[in-house]
Amino acid sequence: MNSKExxxxxxxxxxxxxxxxxxxxxxxxxxxxxVRVERTYDIDQFAESVKQADGAIVQANFRFPSEALxxxxxxxxxxxxxxxxxxxxxxxxxxxxxxxxxxxxNPMGSILAEHTVLLMLALARNLRGLMKSQADxxxxxxxxxxxx
Length: 148
Hints:
This protein is of the alpha/beta class. It is built from five helices and five strands; from the N terminus they run E-H-E-H-E-E-H-E-H-H. It is elongated.
């Protein structure tokens, strides 16, 4: 690693252009005077930039060129921005024992959990039938079994 500057490339899918926001990117860039952060939305540009990077923060759909994973390359750390790393594991990445790979729960994790509970409640309370009744302006009388 270069002792003067650490270079981290941030690979963001084109569908997530607003992540991270400019203020978060600025905070990453200002975290330490020796750290330079570059964000790219392009998979090909990422593949070129990561060859000179010390670290990478990526979604699992970004792939690492074999040159970046060689022991004499600069890359030493990969942060996967998702809990699961299954899609990121390539034979080359598995063989790169000199690279530390970390992952984290996706920032959307709690939102997805809440959405799942909401959908389960919608199924349990027959939301579809209630929406049809609302559209028909018909409210059938029925007794609801309320568990409390």
